[in-house]
Predict the 3D structure of the following.
Amino acid sequence: MAVLRINGESHDVDLPGDTPLLWVIRDHLGLTGTKFGCGIGLCGSCTVQLDGEAVRSCLVPLSAVAAREIVTIEGLAESGDSRLFDAWLAEQVPQCGYCQPGMIMAVDSFLRATPAPSDAQIDASITNLCRCGTYPRIRRAIHRAARSREAARDEPGDETRD
Amino acid sequence: MRRATDPIANLSRRGFLQASGAFAGALLIGGPPWTRGAIAAEVADPASVGPWLRVAADGGVCVWVERAEMGQGVHSTLAALVAEELEVAWEQVTVEARCFDGALRSVLTGASASIRESWLPLRTAGAAARAMLVTSAARAWSLPVEECVARDGRVHHPPTGRGLGYGELAAQAAALPVPSQVELKSPEKFRLLGTDLPRLDLPDKVLGRAIFGIDVAVDGMLHAAPALSPVPGSALVSADREAALATRGVRALVEIPNGLAVVADHYWQARKALDALAPVFSGGEAVIDTPAYSRLLGEALDTPGLVAGAIGDPEAVFAAATRIVEARYEVPYLAHATMEPMSCTASARAGTCEVWTPTQAPLQIRRDVARALDIDPENVTVHPTLMGGGFGRRAETDFAVQAALASRNVARPVKLIWSREDDIRHDFYRPACAAQLRAALDGSGAPQAFALHVAGPSSDRELPSWLRGAITSAQKRIGSPLAPEGYLPDVVWWRLPSVARSGIDWIVAGSSPPLNYRVAHQRLECSLVENPLPIGWWRAVPASQNAFFIESFVDELAHAASRDPFEFRRALLPGRDRAVLEAAAEMSGWGRPRSDGRSLGIAQFAMVGTTVCEVAEVSVDGAGLPTVHRVYCAIDCGRALSPGTIRAQVEGSIVFGLAAALRGRISLAGGRVEQSNFHDYPIPRMGEIPEIEVRIIASDADPTGVGEPATPPIAPAIANAIFAATGRRIRALPLIGAG
């Protein structure tokens, strides 16, 4: 029996330790915002955050996440920085939308480490795949979110998740 | 005459639109779910009429659409067609996917046709509802209808300042007869169409709340993973069924076409059990490996194919020509690789089946599931879900049949999910094709005649491979269909396999004439070369190969004529297409001297009523590898109803075509697809994406398709830029090579 900390809540999970975190999240906890895309860590559709760091949950076994804080897209949507979501909507980024939760989880983690990213930094760090080709808008949304987070930091009293 | 300019739509003909009070206090307007183009609709059966829109008692407007939302944004634009005429605020509108229960007709989403075919019917439905709401307000006030106006979900009477909300009027309006004629708004008065409305589906998609096929949950549901034969039609010769069944959580092993499905309590248990199952397949169709098939395609081009169409007298012009340019091109098989792998949830019980699945073809799902379960199609209900990409792959039904069979076997609902490996190896592929192109040039280098001969595999699925191969090779020898039209009575002829009736495959050859250039003598030929790998619709279908063939070759012709590739095309294009070409060239600074080491390549193509021209700005490094820095794209798709969505579709289509052009390749060895996942069937990441500039040509013509037409020109635009940079003409894709 493992205790999982997901989106601030604890869940008892009785599953083999080699079960990928992706399928624990989707099938056992019913959080379907985290998607299955390739199963070998190449596409990033399954990206969640482990202690704030973006990871590809199809490659993370259940045995590796005990006592670590997991955040999924549902958790970020609930308590994360709404400016990121606002930027995504302002740029009308998604098409089919399937890769977008993973993309947003990766970008949220990236922006906390790199608050004012260059295009080269975005290219090097955001390696998730989007088959619809929304990349130009993703790039614009990242810059937009970075700008609004920057502006918010300059306004005392307006708190961000950081 | 264009129908859009006709302001009056006749609604009463054949009882076309019907109002219904089925929802208490609501006004419902409907029409047949399948209409071609305009109002008229050959569909006369009132039973097929389902509601298109509802104005509820709270004033909310729901638009029901049968077209599939696969990312192209069509749900929002379809809803806007209704909202525009209905005169409601965008915030009042919701949209729901639906598949009309009971009616054995349904819409296939493809060919970039949704907007083209809904442009008049949905606006008419909105206008009819508006007219009924205005009439009911006028009656309530005992005032002349002409003095009442609809705006933002209310009917106003400006002289007296009175107003009533649509919700208050809906019940009375529903009791009125549907008007026999309504006036559609003149497009200059559009308030929603032509603006960038926020898409209705995006908030849920961003927040992780959108339910895709893979996310469906049904009470009591089990999970399934398939073991599919690597060669089409091969047989399972051994499998450790006991070991698989002994795996934790496994409930059953179910025979499905081309394999077995493991059914378990949870998905990962089913996947793990596949390892224990260790299935071994043997035999199967004689799939021809890539090098050998490439040789066969080449041989087929050495002798004449079947003529798919001709204009003018190309034979005579070629015979008399003093200068002929020829070249041979080739493209590989391609997979769709939708981001969401194939999935379906089915619940089969007591002679019925309910299916929840992402699909472009709900009617075909219904038919094929019914056939597999040997039940009446009326007893199959399809719930279309959002889909993680379609691109033509989800016009197929294989995954749904598998889920239905698994569900019936275990007498529980089953959700079946493919692995990425299943998806890459069991697609209905873009055909591998080769082409011979010929042009006869006059003294100034202008083409007088053009011939395109495309060789590729048949997409037929009616016949076994051996029979299809025998028919197509016999037809190739005699140069005609085995059963040409006109020799047999129609009733007999139509029952023959389509391969024998025509010998031409549209998915391979495209349509005639092949050029949108002003060349008076053109011929299109097709040679079908059997290879039993399934073929399907891949975004833009024949244009994905033909644009590469034609637009690369036209570049060769320009070079042969010592003309600038833009000027050469410009001289040959009719007005509207020429304007698109000129726009893209102007955006790119075509002809301006460059000092940045980058070269430009241009290509244009017209399909589904839309013309697109793209200029690729490319540099080539010392190893010969190209980098695409920018793409300039001009598109004429008629009236731009949702400019932001059009731009998104153009950007996405270019990235989709770029992925295929640079590295897209499905190859066959040992009768199997060699690729399996994104490491060997790569799609580009953020850092490989060029900057893309899009210009939408202003137009007041009827809207045309935008989901596909920007994909075909990018491969030849890049290849032409590589030629401009290096003098190296690339006549086979991919440009870089896989992996």
Observations:
- Chain B is about 30% helix and 25% strand.
- The first strand of chain B starts at residue 8 and ends at 10.
- Residues 1-16, 33-49 of chain B have pLDDT under 50 and may be disordered.
- Chain B touches chain A through 61 residues (CB under 8 Å).
